[in-house]
Amino acid sequence: MLRLRSLTMVALLAVAACLGPDQHRCASGTDCPGGTCEAAGFCSFPGAICQEWGAGAGSLAGTCVVDAGVDAAASDGGGVDALDATDTSDVDLDGVPDADDNCRAEPNPDQHDEDGDEAGDACDNCPVTASPIQLNLDDDDLGDLCDPSPTVARNWRLAFEPWSGTPSGVPGWTSYAGTWSVSDDAVVVAVSPNQARMQRPVMVPVGAAVFVDVGYTIDAVTTPATLAVLGPVDFDGSDKTISGTGCALRSDGGGMDRATLASVTVTSATAFSLNGLAPFDRAVTPPATGAIRLQRRGTANTCRISLASETLTDTFNSSGSVTQLGLLARGVGLRLHYLFAYTD
Question: What residue segments make up the domains of the chain, in order of their start?
């Protein structure tokens, strides 16, 4: 949908270019086909990165419209300027008037905004990193602040899970062990010596590299402790075996002061093995916030884990195609804030 919206913007810009300067003066929205009649009496039109003043606006022509000190692109993550507060229109029919909607072209009745940049998650091209301008030079699904290849249009959003609201269980995911629930804007897992495991399907284009980012907060820990992001994974044994590989944060003793970045291999419904790749240097006392990234290109995997202010990266190889993503926890009480999966 992000790609479709971008193409629509280009089409509207082309229409604007055909209008003469006098037609960029306006008294109402009907005077600005494909655009907006601003309070100053000039038309504005969707531009490459923001809502731009039309040709009749003199020295402002072609520059971003600013309303109440906020750039137009920041208003909805899609280049539509702020509307009059009395306007009751609702283009995306999500029950939120366009004047208040942080994502006017995509239905998002909960108005959730994970990174707080005023672009709703449903249309934010970089939903875990604040990007008010929503700059996207190659016009693919990912904004430049999140795009591994910002000048090559090959990056597509596979899934974004902000885990908001109060649903029953974790929508879209199948739990195979432990208790997973959504509460206070996160998936919550209670500390337990037993495994908690769940997975969800994902459709990856043939030959594409897969990135999976998961934000977490560790609230409690007993040892041995493990938090892992897996892909590929098969917890239900649909191919007659329980399997999975991925990246893990582990602790074998002494709390989180002996944390290690590791690769993980699931070997059965109750067992998995860990291969330590890189040790963290210092003690970290929960609650500790960080993120895990699993990056997979063919058989080459890169793990990047941040724990408090320290970040480690290492690599390993494994086989298999990613059709499911999995999460595994043992010995940690935690909150998972988001999962963001995309291609390169």
Answer: 1-152, 160-343
Burial (CB count <10 Å: 0-12, 13-18, 19+), residue 124:
buried
What CATH number has the domain spanning 160-343? Answer: 2.60.120.560
CA distance 53 to 10: 15
For residue 11, what are the β-bridge partners? none
DSSP structural state of residue 103: S
Q: Which amino acid is at 16?
A: A
Residues 179-221 pLDDT 10s = 999 999 999 999 999 999 999 999 999 999 999 999 999 999 8
Question: Tens of pLDDT along 147-175?
Answer: 999 999 999 999 999 999 989 899 999 99
- Quickly list DSSP for 104-153: TTS--TT---TT-SSS-TTT-SSTTS--TT---TT-SSS-TTT-SSTTSS
Global pTM reads 0.75
